[in-house]
């Protein structure tokens, strides 16, 4: 599409930007980023899963999200918190002191912690409540999980009691929820706070069309792990900038616009681990361009 950003031009611009002295890999810093305002106007909150930056601390991941002009992050359990806190991890067992330190850092960066996962949840109330208590304390809206099949009655109770969602994630086949039909079978008799964290890349790896999967899950999609891959139906396929691979990003976003979806789209870029910012910047720019185009088309239909 005509608004898609030229990758070569963006890469050149990024390579010419000042280099962070703190970056061990000498990764370019993005100056005056634009973020995704057209997406935000649709209540599509583009952010990143901190796992994208799993070679870094959580605080460094926050910095990279900010560098992309984004304001939302999804944390995962087990990431080193910061260079100053030794072996302390970001996890639901962290102390109240470290929780406050993380929240203060997020506030200073103008980055909101939206989701937490992927975290295991079993049909064990005491252990499950620890995750929900942590989420409540941290202001987290959605816990991302691949819960055991026998835990849904407990999740009904906890999601309603705490006002916190459970978004069920799909890893590739043969993981527990690799196929959307499996998820639908298990959520059908439970409240709408229990739904899907749609990992579009893992669907591509499993040979599942993301658009068709999202149509099946209408009314149950809570959040996204957004990926675009270089090959379809191949487990070893790797991430490419959004809109340049086989994942049909425009089709995905058009479908979510049709559904009236409002929520979080977290980048989970699992390639070029220490050199991913240029690809992520292009991904955000392309996402925003598609959101702008879809908005214009919708307005034209009304006129």
Keywords for this entry:
303 residues; alpha/beta; TIM Barrel; 8-stranded parallel beta barrel; 10 strands; 40% helix; 16% strand; globular
Structure description:
The radius of gyration is 19 Å and the shape is globular. The model is unreliable at 5-32 (pLDDT under 50). The chain has one domain: Alpha-Beta Barrel (TIM Barrel). Helix 3 (58-67) packs parallel to helix 4 (96-109) and helix 10 packs across helix 11 (277-302). The strands form two sheets. It has an eight-stranded parallel beta barrel with strand order 1-2-5-6-7-8-9-10, surrounded by four helices. A two-stranded antiparallel ribbon has the order 3-4. It has helices at residues 7-15, 37-40, 58-67, 96-109, 125-138, 152-162, 180-187, 200-205, 210-216, 249-259, 277-302, and strands at 44-49, 72-75, 79-80, 89-90, 112-119, 142-145, 165-169, 194-199, 221-226, 263-267. Helix 3 links the parallel strand 1 and strand 2. Helix content is 40%, strand content 16%. The protein has 303 residues and is an alpha/beta fold. It is built from eleven helices and ten strands.
CATH superfamily: Divalent-metal-dependent TIM barrel enzymes
In CATH, the topology is named: TIM Barrel
Please state the CA-atom Rg, rounded to the nearest Å. Answer: 19 Å
What is the count of DSSP helices, taking H or I runs of 4+ residues? 11
What's the CATH first level?
Alpha Beta
How many structurally independent domains?
1
State mean pLDDT (0 to 100 scale). Answer: 91
Order of helices and strands: HHEHEEEHEHEHEHEHHEHEH
What proportion strand? 15-25%
**Helical residues, percent:** 25-40%
Shape: globular
Q: Main beta sheet, described? A: 8 strands, parallel, barrel
**Separation, N- and C-terminal Cα atoms:** 23 Å
Strand order of the largest sheet: 1-2-5-6-7-8-9-10
**Quaternary structure:** single chain
């Amino acid at each position: 599409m005509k608004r898609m950003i030229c990758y070569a031009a963006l890469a050149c611009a990024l390579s010419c930007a000042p280099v962070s002295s703190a970056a061990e890999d000498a990764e370019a810093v993005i100056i005056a980023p634009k973020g995704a305002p057209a997406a935000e106007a649709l209540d599509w909150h583009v952010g990143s899963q901190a796992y994208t930056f799993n070679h870094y601390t959580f605080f460094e991941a926050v910095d990279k999200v900010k560098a992309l002009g984004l304001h939302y992050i999804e944390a995962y359990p087990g990431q080193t918190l910061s260079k100053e806190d030794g072996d302390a991890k970001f996890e639901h067992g962290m102390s109240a002191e470290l929780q406050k330190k993380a929240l203060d850092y997020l506030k200073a960066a103008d980055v909101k912690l939206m989701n937490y996962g992927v975290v295991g949840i079993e049909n064990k109330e005491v252990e499950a409540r620890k995750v929900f208590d942590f989420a409540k304390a941290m202001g987290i809206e959605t816990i991302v999980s691949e819960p055991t099949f026998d835990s849904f009655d407990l999740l009904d109770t906890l999601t309603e009691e705490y006002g916190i969602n459970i978004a069920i994630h799909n890893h590739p086949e043969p993981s527990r929820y690799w196929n959307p039909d499996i998820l639908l079978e298990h959520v059908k008799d439970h409240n709408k706070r229990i739904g899907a964290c749609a990992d579009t890349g893992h669907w591509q790896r499993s040979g599942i069309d993301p658009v068709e999967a999202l149509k099946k899950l209408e009314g149950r999609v809570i959040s996204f792990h957004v990926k675009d891959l270089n090959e379809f139906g191949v487990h070893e396929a790797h991430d490419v900038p959004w809109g340049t691979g086989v994942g049909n990003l425009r089709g995905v976003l058009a479908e979510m616009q049709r559904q009236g979806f409002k929520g979080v789209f977290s980048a989970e870029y699992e390639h070029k681990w220490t050199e991913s910012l240029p690809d992520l910047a292009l991904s955000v720019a392309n996402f925003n361009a598609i959101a702008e185009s879809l908005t214009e088309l919708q307005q034209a239909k009304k006129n």
